[in-house]
Amino acid sequence: MFGRKAAFDADFDHRVESMLAEAGKEELLPIVQMGEPVLRQQARPYKGQLAAKTLNRLLKAMRATMLEAPGVGLAAPQVGLGLAIAVIEDHVREDEDDPRQIDELPFRVIINPSYEPIGQETAAFYEGCLSLEGFQAVRRRWLDITASWEDRSGRKHRQHMHGWPARIFQHETDHLSGEVYIDKAEIRSLSSDDNLSEYWAYDPVPTEAARELGFTI
User: Fold this and answer.
1) Is 160 marked within a binding site?
2) Of 105, 112, 125, 19, which Cα lies nearest the Cα of 65?
3) Would you call 36 a catalytic residue per the annotation?
4) What is the pLDDT of residue 3?
């Protein structure tokens, strides 16, 4: 459980409260872009540095910011805070035959998350990031993982995740170690959002993109 008095950081709590006050009634936080040092730093484990009220306000604002972007995940470093906290949420699309294996992922707060691959199977699909606006690239990730995290109350969770939800969890957890998806992406696959929509979005499996742009999947 969080809330140990020794971990509470009054100065940091005040900083976060001020940031939330500046976000206004809509509670939309600025999303930092590549080049900001916080995106390349190891996030500090969360041990109760914030008052419960501040933490809840921060999580609410992070969810609002994620949905407005729109996105399916947002890590605290993406709003300028080097804490091991992220929020994730995604929902089933209309296309039942989508090979990305998108599945229902209810809103979830993941604190101090980690993951381990299950087996050796991977999948390569286009992926984007709210901190690298306007571009996407093909990233290979584990198809199945064991995801571990703590919730906002400090309770520990462990769950098998598969397909697209597993990809989202990996993406956001990697942010907390200073990694961005482009670090291990097929760099020749890099595409603007407009060109992805025009040339490659018709087929989620990037087979044609790999042939035309000169990368392997």
Assistant:
1) no
2) 19
3) no
4) 56
